[in-house]
Each structure stands twice: as structure tokens, then as C-alpha cells.
Amino acid sequence: MSFKTIIEPFRIKTVEPIYISNASERAAYLKQAKYNTFKLKADQVIIDLLTDSGTSAMSAKQWAGIMEGDEAYAGSNSWQKMERVIRDLTGFDHILPTHQGRAAERILYGTIGGAGKVFISNTHFDTTRANIEYSGAEAIDIPVPEASNPAVPHPFKGNMDTEKLKKLLQVHGSDNIGAVILTVTNNSGGGQPVSMKNAQQVSEICKDAGVLFILDCCRIAENAWFIKDREDAWKDATYEDIAKHMFRLADGAVMSAKKDALVNMGGFLVLKDEKLALECTNLLIITEGYTTYGGLSGRDMEALAIGLKEVFRPDYLKYRIRSTAYLGNKLTELGIPVMQPIGGHAVYVDAKALYPHIPAHEYPGQTLACRLYELGGVRAVEIGSVMFGKYDENGKLIPAPLELVRLAIPRRVYTQSHIEYVIEVFEKILEEKDNTKGFKITYEPPFLRHFTAHFEPL
Fold first, then answer.
1. Per-residue pLDDT band at 18 (split at 50, 70, 90)
2. 123 vs 30: CA distance, rounded Å
3. Phi, psi of 267 (to 5 degrees)
4. DSSP 3-state of 347
5. Domain-embedded: residue 112
């Protein structure tokens, strides 16, 4: 028997107060933040949908595990627990703990990257692309064609275009490919899942070409839910077994555990090749810490080991995917254009379609992010030409393919009424959308500009 109401499969034990600001206060806060939502203080935000990374609420078992954290410098009991869980899930022998995912990216892509190297992905996310390009290498995105149209539904819009992959391997040559990276789910592409069939095809192509195949697996449990739900061959498998099979297709994986491991800090790099693992281990020790903690405290490792098991519980994943879809479907009913179908960890609003009168160089996504905050204290993030736009040799903006705003939902944090409030804020967005004006950038750094850029309203 199924019910229409989506209930949280947990009880609330501890609460944190939210300051309910008014519109004039928020206008002042946003101006002080240079109209960059990253620069807002947390206590100035009512509903924080900036990211689902590191913002999860941990379970009672995770908090209990923290009290058992073994802080020995080398070979702690907490490390052994985390190592066992990761090895069982991923199947890899070489496990390198890091303080978060981008540290694992820096270590791996700094080792195998460099000038002349090319990395190919369904879609590189911001820190992945930055770590690759910082090494001097080139990052190329080849999502399936359906990914370019937010309104077109497709069960696995996060897939990689395998025909383009074959052509790129021929054009650049296997020796010049740093790695092929499959991001599951595809965050920059709207939180869309990758099918097991696509992962198998990518794996076979890479194996035939002798090219390294890496999973960016920070949301692999959520991806497993979509595979079980939409891919008939896997309908009888457990979510954990689906994830295990996908890991076995790859040569390595990078994980920000701040997502599907349900922790506030942590990550890891796992590899099959011993020689590459040794090279990365040297860099790990220099920059992160010893091989059995890598920038993590024992208590972090305890929580991570527990979270990696909790995330695959069927009742949790059902709640997670259905509650995200609830927000996306309600916004669609209002007439808000969102990425279809709804992804696992976030709802992506198509700001280009919402504000057709605001051109890319006036940043419609940033505009929407600012209006959401000013009208209702909801913090979101632009994933468009601020995050991924580039300039040509004349300094003219090359827009990103999509102008999205991501409403990333923290795991086990907000209740149904919080989501209903967000829907009401969008009702106000619709009322004023035709008169909304864009923004210009007044300051930007050379890399990852969306984190620290300054804006002014036009």
C-alpha cells in the first residue's frame, strides 16, 4: 500500500533555530555580500539550498560513532572501520582518505594531468574542471544530446555520449587522454542519473583503448535508486549491489563523502593500479596527511563508515528521491521551468526560460538566485554562465550551454513545511518575473569565479 504523503523516515531529536529575516534586512545583507549568495552568512539565510555537500544531518548512530573516534596518528581503529566499508563497497585495494572530494581530485588529476592531456566527462563539475585545467590539461564535456534541453524528459539524461567518446579517443589518441570521468549522478547536467548500460559501454570503450576510467561517485546511492527504478535488468537488485557493480566497471573513483556518505566532512580516492596509487600516496602524505587519515579525524572516519551503510537503506532513498521530486513537480505545476525529469539531490530551474528577456551576459541564473534570497531568504546557487562561462580572445563571454539555478536539498535537514515555503517564494518570483533585471560582474578571480565574484544589479 502506498500513500500520497511523503513522511521523513526519521524522528527529530535535536533542533537548530532559524532567524526569520525581513525583506529590508535581506536586501542589505545581499548588498553587503556583493550580490553573491556564497558570501551570505549562514544566520542570514532562512532556507539554505546552496549545496547538499556537507550539509547533511547525521544520525544518532553517527553521533554515537563520533564518541568512539580513535585519534591514533597511524592505523587507528576508525581508519580500519572506514577502510573495510569502502573496500567492500568499491572493491578497490588502494584506498586514500582525503578531507573532501576536491582534495582527491587535486591529488589524482594533478598526478595524471598536465599540459597536453585531455580529460573527457559526461559533464565535469566546477572543482573537477578547475583541478584539471589548473594542471594545464583540457576538460571536455560530452553529455548525451537530450541533456542540452531542460524540458525534454529522458530516463538517463546524465549519460555520456559514447559515439563522441570513440571519436575523441581517435582524435586525441589514447596516450594523450588523462582519464575518462563518469559523474554519477551528473550534477552540472541537472542531477540526472547515468544508466548501468551507459557505464558498461564507457568501461568497454576505455578498456579497448587502454584509457583510465574514473567514477566521480559522490551521489552513487541516489544514482543506484534511478537504475533500479528505470532499468529493468536491475529491478530486483539491491541499491548497494547496483553501486558495487558500477564500481567494478571502473579503474578508480573519487568521492566527496559530504554527499552520499551523509557526513559533514570527508572523501576518498580509490584506485586499481598500484603504481598510480603509490604516486598519489606520495602527494597525499605531502598535502593531506598520513595514509591512514589523510586530513580526517578518527571521529570523521567513524561517521563516514556508518553513513556509507545508512545511505543505501531503501526507506531513506525512497524518501530522498520522492521528496526532491515533490518540490520539482510543484514548481512545474506553477509554471516554473525546471530540468525534466527531476534529479535526485536537487531541483534545477531553467533561468533562461524563466527570464527570456535577460541575455546570458546579464546572468539570468545569478538574477534568480538573488531574487530567491531577497524575496524569501532562500539561498540557491547559479549553475550557468557565472560558473561555467568563458571569454574569447576579445574578452566576449562564451555562455555556458545551460543557465540553471540549483536548489540542492540537504539530506535529513528540512521538513515538508520548509519545502512548501520554498514553493510560495517561487509564486512571488512569478509575479514579478517580467520586470526583473540582470546583473554585471564587477570582480572575478581566474578560477572558480562563482565562489568569490562580485556583482551589481543592472
1. very high
2. 30
3. -175, 180
4. strand
5. yes
Distance CA 401, CA 383 (A): 10
Q: Interior CA angle at 411 toward 407 and 417, to 5°?
A: 70
CATH assignment at residue 423: 3.90.1150.10
Q: How confident is the model at residue 187 (pLDDT cuts 50, 70, 90)?
A: confident
- Domain enclosing residue 285, as ranges: 60-310
List the beta bridge partners of residue 140: 120
Residue 150's alpha-carbon distances to 142, 342, 353, in angstroms, are 16, 10, 9
What is the SS3 assignment for 428?
A: helix
Q: Give DSSP secondary structure letters for 36-52.
A: -GGGS-GGG-SEE-S-S
Residue labelled with grid coordinates 563539475:
125
Tens of pLDDT, residues 312-353:
999 999 999 999 999 999 999 999 999 999 999 999 999 999
364-393: average pLDDT = 96
- DSSP 8-class letter at 264: S
Alpha carbon distance 10, 16 (integer Å): 16
Read off the pLDDT of each residue in 271-295 and give the average, rounded to a whole number: 97
Query: In a 10 Å sphere around its CB, with 0-12 CB exposed, 13-18 middle and 19+ buried, how is residue 162 labelled?
Result: middle
For residue 400, give the nearest of 225, 252, 189 by alpha carbon: 189
Q: Is pLDDT above 70 for 1?
A: no
Pairing assessment for the beta strands 404-408 and 439-443 based on DSSP bridges? unpaired
Quickly state the pLDDT bin for 201 (edges 50, 70, 90). very high
**33 and 80: one domain?**
no
Are 322 and 102 within 8 A, CB to CB? no
For the chain, what is the domain count?
2
Average pLDDT of the chain?
96
Asked if residue 280 belongs to a domain, the reply is yes
Could you tell me if 289 and 395 lie in one domain?
no
For the chain, percent of residues with pLDDT exceeding 70: 100
Let me know how many helices (H) and strands (E) the chain has, helices first: 17, 16
Terminal Cα distance for the chain, rounded: 53
* 432 and 334 within one domain: yes
Residue type, 25: E
Pair 317, 300 in one domain:
no
Mean pLDDT value of segment 129-144: 95
Judged against a pLDDT cut of 90, whether residue 5 lies above it is answered with no
277 and 373 in a single domain? The answer is: no
